[in-house]
UniProtKB/TrEMBL annotation:
Residues 72-167 form the Methyltransferase type domain. Coiled coil: none annotated. Pfam families: Methyltransf_11. One of its GO terms (biological process) is methylation. InterPro entries: Methyltransf_11, Methyltransf_Superfamily, SAM-dependent_MTases_sf. It comes from Hyphomicrobium album. This is Methyltransferase domain-containing protein. Keywords: Methyltransferase, Transferase. The keyword DNA-binding does not apply.
Length: 242
């Protein structure tokens, strides 16, 4: 049997999608494309995509507010979610875009969000936190943006405490129907719009120590999905689906 190299391992999800005929063309995204896209989006983000994603974002924070301890929000953007976290939580945010972070810091100062203890310019694929630093790690509308989502998932898991949770809110593509057709047609333009329209859920199911415990379609129209993963602590759980 031929051994798989590290490069082949990282490429496996995309190769698998092609082999199964799930996608027709896939856009590539690199860090410079992400920065360019969000530099353009920063002035209008709150009034465009921020509105589309509002219900999914609020639902996710409501779930997190039932927990305790330290929360890391990866891809905090302009900080739209920060006022919704309960004050008993300690919230830290990171983002790659300095323009987005500037607006998040203005929000924290203007609304006196004392529970937000740090906002850092940082690559989600190279988090500068020790292992097990956070009780909950959440990445909302991030995984279709980052160049290597598998690497990011492993970093999210690494900085989560055993028994803690990793939560994703994301768009996952579908193969059939009008939506699938539109997603495939948009795929070659990923570097221009700043996110992948074709993105299979297998790209985020790469960590052996993360157990999927809930999967839920979110409003509007089920365009986004919330996934909750429990960091292994030796206890098995059942998946809740709606």
């Amino acid at each position: 049997m031929k051994m798989m190299s590290q490069t082949d391992y990282r490429r496996q999800p995309a190769l698998l999608e092609r082999a199964q005929g799930r996608i027709v063309g896939i856009g590539r995204i690199d860090e410079s494309a992400v920065l360019d896209a969000y530099r353009r989006w920063a002035p209008v983000y709150d009034y465009t995509f921020g509105l589309v994603a509002r219900q999914g974002r609020r639902h996710s924070v409501e779930v997190i507010n039932q927990s305790r301890g330290r929360v890391l929000e990866v891809g905090v953007g302009t900080g739209l979610s920060l006022p919704d976290y309960k004050k008993q939580l300690e919230v830290v945010g990171i983002d790659l875009s300095p323009e987005m972070l500037e607006k998040a810091r203005e929000r924290v100062a203007g609304e006196r969000l004392d529970h937000v203890t740090g906002l850092h310019e940082m690559d989600a694929g190279d988090l500068k936190f020790p292992d097990g630093s956070f009780d909950t790690v959440v990445a909302m509308f991030v995984m279709t943006v980052v160049p290597e989502p598998e690497v990011v998932m492993r970093e999210l898991s690494r900085v989560t405490k055993p028994g803690g949770e990793v939560m994703l809110v994301n768009h996952f593509s579908q193969r059939e129907g009008v939506r699938g057709w539109v997603e495939r047609r948009m795929a070659p333009f990923a570097d221009k719009i700043g996110w992948r329209s074709v993105f299979d859920i297998s790209r985020v199911q790469v960590c052996d120590d993360l157990e999927l415990v809930e999967r839920k379609a979110l409003r509007p129209l089920g365009l986004f999905t919330m996934l909750r993963f429990a960091k292994s602590d030796g206890v098995r759980r059942q998946v809740a689906a709606e």
